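Please produce the structure of this protein holding fe (ii) ion.
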Amino acid sequence: MLFRQLFDRQSSTYTYLIASGKGREALIIDPVKEQMPVYLGLIEQLDLKLVRAIDTHTHADHITALGDLRDATGCVTLMGEFTRAECVSQHVREGEIVDVDGVRLKALYTPGHTNESFSFVRDGRGECEDAVFTGDVLLIRGSGRTDFQGGDPYASYDSIVNKLFALGEETRVYPAHDYKGFTVSTIWEERRFNPRLAGKSAEQYAEIMRSLNLPDPKMMDVAVPANLACGQRA
Ligand SMILES: [Fe+2]
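Below is the modeled complex.
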C-alpha cells in the first residue's frame, strides 16, 4: 500500500495520496491548489496514474486542486451527491464503493460541518489498517465548525456518534485539518478522549458548538465560490 499524508501549512490542510503500490492507479483526497507542484512531482516519481481526485466537502479555507488535477492528469473529479459544485464529474452516494486499482473507499454521508460532507472509509482487507478520511466533520480531539454552509451541530453529532463511532475501534482517523500537530487518531481514541463528544449528549454538543463564536475563515469569500468551480475561477 502506498500512502502519503501531505500538509499545506497555509491552511493546515491534510491531503492524502493513496495507491495500492508504485506504478499503479492512484487517488487523492482534499488536494490544495497551491500544492499542485508537490502532487505532480510525487505522481511522476512514484510512477502513479491519478484516476480520482476527491473533495470531502466544499472547503471554505483553501482553494481545491480538483480542477487543476483533472486538467493536468485527466483524472475524474469526485464528491458526494449533494455538492453544489457542478464541475464535479462523479457524485457518490451513501454506501457506494470507489475502487481504484484495489484501493476500496466506501462513501459515508456525514453532514454537520456542511450539509454535503462525505467521509470515505478504506477497507484494509487485512492487508493494511482500516482508515476513515473524515474531512472536517471529525477532527482529532475536535470537530469541524457547524455555523455556516448548511452546518448543523445536531447533524454533526449524529454523523460522528452514529456513523463514524460505529466503525471498528482500530480504524485510523485521518481528518482534513489539524491545528495542534496531530497526524492520525483512531475511532477508539476519539470515542474516549474527544472533549466535545466523549460522554456528551447531543444537546451538550450543540451548546459547545454554538458557543465557539469563531470568526469567518479569511479566505471564505474567495474559496467557496472558487471551489464550486473546482478551484478554477472565483
Ligand atoms: Fe471545511
